[in-house]
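User: quick one
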Amino acid sequence: NAGVTQTPKFQVLKTGQSMTLQCAQDMNHEYMSWYRQDPGMGLRLIHYSVGAGITDQGEVPNGYNVSRSTTEDFPLRLLSAAPSQTSVYFCASSPDRTGRSIQYFGAGTRLSVL
Amino acid sequence: SQQGEEDPQALSIQEGENATMNCSYKTSINNLQWYRQNSGRGLVHLILIRSNEREKHSGRLRVTLDTSKKSSSLLITASRAADTASYFCATGPNSGGYQKVTFGTGTKLQVIP
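Assistant: Done. Structure below.
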């Protein structure tokens, strides 16, 4: 039981490049979410999903796309990276599809956009 | 905007002392959770307190919730060097349906051996 797995752990991009941050969980959780963490800002919710085929925006969704084709996977796409997207990204899942229960976090992806 | 705001932003104590950190929030909640983050790691859930509870214990952790003041506190008793980490509160609006769980800015705790 690996929990929540994020790949890659580190990534450097040039402005304008695109990439996908991967997130997978093996706990059969319906609720999954993406956060970004910036110094002094805490964690901010980007997008979340309450099940396969259902996604919604969080607090800071601009510049990011998500999809949820399976219960296990919730990838986050940066279509055209900008320096403002330099951050640490965390994926989380929860057994409660309303999001009211405990969230289990991945180890994070450190992204630098030059 | 952040739903939860922790204070202090940073706290430094000696091993064996108690550490108290506070969280204030803005809207009605279903529950409030506390998480710990060690440097360079993901967040780990510590404790969840429901809106109809006033106090909850888990080992050396004690959490209180005052919904009238929209505030919560986390007390770590007999602190250890291993408690050095950042601590975050997390809340979700009590508006039914799906929740957008939001996190505060965190309290950075340093426990000096």
